[in-house]
């Protein structure tokens, strides 16, 4: 009996040593595939880890997300300061600074921050800044991120202009994340051609708001239009016709008393619908 227990213990020890069990990282997903799909006789499989991260994490990469519906100004300014100047502020710290150095009574009255409030707070940090009015070409050629007011989805909003490339304007939106507009669309929603810049020496500029490959993976407007308006491009009767072609046909007796073909044989198209469990 002792020999059996000892043998079992040794088997367990060697098994655990042979197959080292490592803690799986939370972001790892494992998939299994055949070693050689051309050889059916090979049944060996291997597992490969793939590291993933939530899409929301990349969507708000480099952006301080606004905590309140009225705080897009403070979130946009924090995003610009952290991503371009290199500060490490929270939105709450920026809000406190705007309230302290800005027009406090007006801020409380309108429940929002203005470019003047931003200028005063940035000045208190020892930086030069200012609000300007210019053309779209000015926004592009100055080659640095800027806070721009837009009128979008029925409300006025502050976002951070990041870059312009191949006819698209890329912005850091405190509410929606890293998004882009085509050039004409941006011009339409840009409020009064206003921009807010912070002056930073070239050697001190940070590049946390620089474009990355993930920013460029947007859906082209033509593709959005094509599928968003599918009902207009492909009427329902046409789609029904396609579905009928792929269905099973059964010869039945017409039981519709109001039909001219009542009592006569008629073909019915039997469509198959599958329900996921």
What topology does this entry show?
Blueprint: H1 2-18, E1 28-34, E2 45-51, H2 55-59, H3 72-85, H4 91-101, H5 104-110, H6 115-124, E3 128-133, H7 136-141, E4 146-152, E5 155-165, E6 168-173, E7 177-182, H8 183-189, E8 194-199, H9 221-228, H10 230-233, H11 236-245, E9 248-253, E10 265-270
Which runs of at least 5 residues are low in confidence (pLDDT < 50)? 273-277
Q: What is the name of the CATH topology of the largest domain?
A: Cathepsin B, Chain A
What is the string of helix and strand elements?
A: HEEHHHHHEHEEEEHEHHHEE
Task: Sketch the major β-sheet.
Answer: 4 strands, antiparallel
Number of domains: 2
As a percent range, the share of strand residues is 15-25%
Mean pLDDT across residues: 80
Which CATH architecture of the largest domain?
Alpha-Beta Complex
Structural class: alpha+beta
Overall body shape: elongated
Numbering strands along the chain, what is their spatial order in the largest sheet? 4-5-6-7
Note the total helix count: 11
* CATH homologous superfamily (4th level) name of the largest domain: Cysteine proteinases
Highest CATH level, the class of the largest domain: Alpha Beta
Rg (C-alpha, Å): 31 Å
Q: Estimate percent helicity.
A: 25-40%
Oligomerization status of the protein chains: single chain
Cα end-to-end separation: 50 Å
Number of strands: 10
Pfam family, one: Peptidase_C39
Organism: Acinetobacter bohemicus
Domain Peptidase C39: 66-197
InterPro entries: Peptidase_C39
């Amino acid at each position: 009996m002792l020999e059996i227990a000892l043998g079992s213990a040794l088997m367990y020890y060697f098994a655990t040593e042979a197959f080292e069990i490592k803690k799986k990282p939370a972001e790892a997903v494992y998939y299994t595939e055949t070693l050689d799909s051309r050889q059916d006789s090979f049944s060996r499989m291997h597992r490969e880890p793939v590291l993933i991260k939530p899409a929301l994490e990349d969507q708000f990469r480099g952006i301080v997300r606004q905590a309140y519906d009225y705080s897009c100004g403070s979130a946009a300014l924090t995003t610009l300061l952290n991503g371009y100047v290199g500060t490490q502020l929270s939105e709450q710290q920026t809000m406190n600074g705007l309230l302290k150095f800005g027009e406090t009574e007006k801020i409380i009255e309108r429940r929002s921050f203005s470019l003047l409030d931003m200028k005063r707070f940035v000045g208190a940090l020892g930086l030069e800044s200012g609000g300007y009015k210019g053309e779209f070409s000015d926004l592009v050629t100055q080659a640095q991120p800027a806070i721009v007011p837009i009128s979008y989805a029925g409300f006025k909003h502050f976002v951070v202009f990041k870059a312009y490339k191949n006819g698209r304007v890329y912005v850091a939106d405190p509410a929606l994340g890293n998004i882009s507009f085509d050039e004409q669309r941006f011009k339409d929603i840009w409020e009064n051609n206003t921009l807010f810049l912070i002056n930073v020496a070239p050697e001190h500029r940070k590049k946390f708001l620089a474009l990355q490959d993930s920013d460029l993976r947007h859906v082209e407007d033509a593709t959005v239009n094509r599928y968003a308006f599918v009902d207009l491009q492909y009427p329902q009767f046409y789609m029904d016709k396609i579905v009928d072609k792929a269905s099973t046909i059964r010869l039945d007796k017409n039981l519709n008393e109001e039909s001219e073909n009542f009592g006569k044989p008629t073909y019915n198209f039997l469509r198959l619908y599958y329900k996921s469990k």
